[in-house]
Each structure stands twice: as structure tokens, then as C-alpha cells.
Amino acid sequence: MMGRRFCVRCGSEEGPDNPIIDSLCPKCFVNERSIIKLPNTIKITICPVCGSVYYKGSWIKLGDDLSEVLEFLINNYYLTSGRGVIYNGFTNVSVKVTSIEEGKAYLSIEGTYEGVRINHGYVVNIRIDKRLCPKCTKVRGRHFEAIVQIRSEVPIRREVVERVSLVLSRMKGLEENIVEVKEYRDGVDIKLLSQSVARQLANILKREFAAKITQTWKDSGYVSGRKRSKLTISVRVPGLLEGDIVEVDNVLAVVTSVKQGRVVLRRLDDGGQLRLDQSSLWERNVKLLTPKDYAVLNAIVLGYEGGKAVVQAEESGNVYYIAAPKLFKPGTGVKILIYKGRTYLMI
């Protein structure tokens, strides 16, 4: 039978909740020693432009909170790489940063010894080394590997630009790859650090807006003996929005949906639906009409005669006979569209 053990400092007896750690009880241990031993000064290298942190030979995003950055580095680097020493016998060691003041970080160290959780405070110096990451260095030098040129088949409208911007804002990794964005009357040019990100961006626009994609390369010299080429991706979007009036192969239609690489139209002559995917959209003769091309009037349905709706314009009192299915009851208010002498019921 083993003899009882006591703390050599305070004399407390060993027990289930009071293990003896190298002749010391937990209270005396944390007063004299530490669960871990870290360097006196921990250096953190941060890019002053994008906030990326240098970690194990790479630059990564860890957020803007310096306490969280330091906490991540200690737990994932210093405690696993041998740069920080864990006292023999301790397991499940973790570090939390309680505060950072005047170049010092105040830590809470916690670990398990023979099933008992033990914690204590710890203080280290921190030094922030600010250095541009490779991506920001390239941006500062206006270096880019690819350019995405977004253009519209029709005069580009602010609403189209805003919808494109909204889609791009959801793309992960895009913002940090952008070198420059220039807006023109007929579209937008986006210069990027990465060709793969440029292709990903183009594919998203193709999927969301049924855009037509063309890729070209231009020699940009040699790097380390290897030939380099810059990629230009032309992205031509239809430039259509819900509610637009278009003419397709001499048939008038209203745009009801533009999403997931497909434009959905509703024909004004019979109310039928027309779906155009990316390939068929560019093969068909689709013409966007402007409000100057047609007139829209408020009218009332009077009834139906011979397969035609009889409607009366509210302002002028003119009566129109329009080929249309019986969708509206007499007395219903509707809108009619007049284009090139023909009248359509806005179904």
C-alpha cells in the first residue's frame, strides 16, 4: 500500500480533487509554476491592408479581433509545434485571452491533471509586425492576372449594375482578389489577382444572368523562365429585368423572370410562356423595347366577342378588340399595350 502524499509547501493531503503535481498541490503549483511555458514575446505578423495573419508559411483570415487572433495562434501553433511547452502530465490544455493592454496579453490557462481541471493566469508580451501580404503587394503594384469585362447587349441600366453587384457581393474570396474596378457607360471592368477566381466569377454571371462568355489570353512576359499570359473574359449579359417588354422573332412578350441562367417570357398575344436558356437566348432575335416604343393605357374589360376581348380605354373612351383568352370578367380593370399599330392585353 502506497503511503499518503502531501504538498511540500502547504502540507495539504493528496485526494481525488487534490492531486499532487511534483510534490505540490494544485494551488501551490499554479503559484510557483505554470501549465504551459510560452516565449516571453509572441510576434504576430499582420497585413495592414487586408488584416490577414501570417501562419505556418501562409496568409490566412482570422478576423479583426486581436484577442481572437492571438488565442488561435497559441492554441493551434504554440501548443502543437513545440514552441510552447506543456507541463508533463497535463492534458486538454487550452488558452483564452482575457485582455490585451499596452503590449501585454493576459491569458487564462486551463488543463486537466489526473481528472482535475486546473487553471491560472499568465502574461506574455506581444509584438505586432505589420507586413504586406503577397496579394496586397500585387494590388499596390496594380499587378493582375485576369480581367473580367461585363457588358450588356442593350444600353446598360443602373438596375442591372446593382443586380450584378448584389450577386458578386455574395461570392466568397472575390473582394480580396480585386485589384481594380472601373465603370464605363456600357459596363464594368474588374481586374483580379487570380485567373481561377475570374473564371468562377464569369461562371456565376453565366448561371445567374444567362451571360455569354468568351475567353482570350495575352502574353505578359516570362516569370522564372516560364511564359505568363493574362486572361481576359468577356461577359455579355442580356441586360433584361423583370417587367421589360421585348420583341422575340416579331412576337411581343414581357419578361417575368431572369435567374439561374434562364430568361422566362410571357407572350402578350396568347399568354403562353417562353423559356430561353443561355444558348437559345443568344440565337434568337431578342430586342428590348423602351417606353418610347409603345404606349400602355388603363382600360376596362367590357366583354368578349368572337374570341376577342372587348376593352375600353379609360381616358380616351376608345374601344379595342384584342385577341385574348377569357381571363378577366367584364368590369375588370386591365392594361393594354399599343405597339406598331397592334394592341395587346397585358396578361
CA-to-CA gap between the ends? 95 Å
Assembly state: single chain
Share in β-strands: over 45%
The CATH topology of the largest domain comes to: Immunoglobulin-like
Any idea what the radius of gyration is?
A: 35 Å
Number of strands: 23
CATH architecture of the largest domain: Sandwich
Strand order of the largest sheet: 10-11-9-13-12
Number of domains: 4
CATH class of the largest domain: Mainly Beta
Structural class category: alpha+beta
How does the major sheet shape up? 5 strands, mixed
Give a brief outline of the structure:
With 347 residues, this protein is an alpha+beta fold. The protein has 6 helices and 23 strands.
Question: Can you put this structure into words, describing what you see?
Answer:
The structure is a single chain. The protein is α+β, with helices and mostly antiparallel strands and 347 residues long. The protein has four domains: 34-130, Sandwich (Immunoglobulin-like), CATH 2.60.40; 142-237; 245-288, no CATH class; 295-345, OB fold (Dihydrolipoamide Acetyltransferase, E2P), CATH 2.40.50.140. 17% of the residues lie in helices and 45% in strands. The protein is built from six helices and 23 strands. It is elongated. The model has no long low-confidence stretch (mean pLDDT 86).
